[in-house]
Amino acid sequence: MEKPSAKNMKKFIRKEKRLASAFYQFVFKGNFMETMVSVVIATAFANLIKSLLDNILMPFVSFLLGSFDLSDYTVTLFAQAGTGGLQIQLGLFLQNCLDFLVLAVLIFIIFRIFKRVQRKRDIEEPVPEDIALLKEIREMLISQQKNKESGV
């Protein structure tokens, strides 16, 4: 192992400064902060949707279809006398799959409504006169440029 020297220490400090600078660039200048904000918002949204499913939607579905809770369903494997065996809580998995399916359909419907409203808004918004005039001038300039290039 090398003995610590002033030259080695300077090299080490330069590497550390570059590493610290690169980390700073990564955290504060790149997409890291946007990603962190997105994760926090997604977590809050997931809690909101879970509450919507557990407290509003699933009781309504249970009311319509009768008792509809799969979470108590278990499968026992390798049961022997005197032992409980291996308990697999298949019902919790199935309930989570059902929750996911309901959530996916709900998000699909919300985005579909959002897109439809956005399309209507785009159709209903008339193009301002100055923008339309600028587009017309741009098209005329493009056609003139094409005419010059083709020699007409």
The gross shape turns out to be flat
Summarize the biggest pleated sheet.
2 strands, antiparallel
The unreliable regions are none
Strand tally, please?
A: 2
Plain-language structure description:
With 152 residues, the protein is mostly helical. Helices cover 76% and strands 4% of the residues. The protein contains four helices and two strands; from the N terminus they run ααββαα. It has a two-stranded antiparallel sheet with strand order 1-2. β1 and β2 form a beta hairpin. The model has no long low-confidence stretch (mean pLDDT 79).
Keyword list:
76% helix; 2 strands; mainly alpha; 152 residues; 4 helices
Produce the secondary structure layout.
Blueprint: H1 6-29, H2 32-65, E1 75-77, E2 86-88, H3 90-124, H4 129-150
Antiparallel strand pairs: 1-2
Can I get a quick summary?
By secondary structure, the protein is mainly α.
